[in-house]
């Protein structure tokens, strides 16, 4: 059960643990015990005592950890390297590895940063059906990340500001982007040329366009796909070949 403390109490406790470390109490395990003392203000001592009294010492553990990376400022460049910790994936991914997560994190919009990632659709779990993909997202009202691995072993996909759905018009915002790890990681953001971000049909899903092929296109069975340069994202083909076959496909939401 969580316990709430005032800002002052937390400050006292934080100062105590920052200034105290096990090295101040014991030296090497074969050497003689050393004693060093930390001076603590009486008021801080009483606060620390009140915080610790409800929990017996055997339930406490103090560990040394490296300085945690701080979250990238909302005002920082989207192309700068991410200082974020890796996201927490609620479910196991058949595709995403630590390297993929590290590189994607710096490009996820600020409103999705710090959230856990939940798998809402997977061909391995739900089968290969675009209709099922739409059905799995019917209740969502937040961004989603699509991740594809094709039969060439290449990983690529798209971040959509809106969950995928059937629509008679294009939807989405300038947060939407395409990305590829084939052969190295690249992100393709909105050019401002048009607003053909996403359009969903029962027989296909389209992302990007403008006077030609789509930046990313998938068929009704989520088996065949294609990727061409498009005006919306000015992207290169996401896969090694314009036309590809899907091996695995996942869609993640941010909760």
UniProtKB/TrEMBL annotation:
<feature type="domain" description="TLDc">
    <location>
        <begin position="94"/>
        <end position="255"/>
    </location>
</feature>
<dbReference type="GO" id="GO:0003713">
    <property type="term" value="F:transcription coactivator activity"/>
</dbReference>
<dbReference type="GO" id="GO:0006979">
    <property type="term" value="P:response to oxidative stress"/>
</dbReference>
<dbReference type="Pfam" id="PF07534">
    <property type="entry name" value="TLD"/>
</dbReference>
<protein>
    <submittedName>
        <fullName>Nuclear receptor coactivator 7-like</fullName>
    </submittedName>
</protein>
<dbReference type="GO" id="GO:0005634">
    <property type="term" value="C:nucleus"/>
</dbReference>
<dbReference type="GO" id="GO:0006357">
    <property type="term" value="P:regulation of transcription by RNA polymerase II"/>
</dbReference>
<dbReference type="InterPro" id="IPR006571">
    <property type="entry name" value="TLDc_dom"/>
</dbReference>
């Amino acid at each position: 059960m969580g316990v709430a403390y005032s800002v002052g109490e937390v400050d006292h406790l934080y100062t105590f643990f920052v200034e105290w470390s096990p090295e101040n109490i014991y030296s090497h395990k074969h050497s003689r015990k050393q004693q060093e003392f930390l001076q603590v203000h009486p008021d801080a001592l009483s606060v620390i005592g009140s915080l610790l009294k409800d929990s017996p010492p055997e339930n406490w553990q103090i560990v040394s950890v490296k300085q945690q990376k701080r979250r990238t400022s909302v005002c920082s460049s989207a192309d700068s390297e991410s200082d974020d910790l890796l996201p927490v994936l609620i479910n196991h991914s058949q595709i995403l590895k630590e390297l993929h997560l590290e590189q994607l994190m710096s490009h996820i919009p600020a409103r999705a940063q710090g959230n856990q990632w939940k798998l809402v659709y997977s061909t391995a779990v739900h089968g290969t059906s675009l209709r099922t993909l739409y059905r799995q997202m019917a209740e969502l009202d937040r961004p989603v990340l699509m991740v594809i691995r094709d039969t060439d072993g290449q990983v690529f996909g798209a971040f959509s500001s809106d969950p995928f759905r059937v629509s008679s018009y294009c939807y989405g915002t300038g947060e939407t982007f395409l990305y590829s790890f084939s052969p190295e990681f690249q992100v393709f953001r909105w050019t401002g040329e048009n607003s053909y971000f996403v359009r969903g049909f029962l027989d296909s899903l389209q992302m990007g366009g403008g006077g030609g092929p789509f930046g990313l296109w998938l068929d009704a069975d989520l088996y065949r796909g294609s990727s061409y340069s498009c005006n919306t994202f000015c992207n290169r083909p996401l896969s090694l070949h314009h036309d590809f076959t899907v091996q695995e496909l996942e869609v993640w939401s941010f909760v």
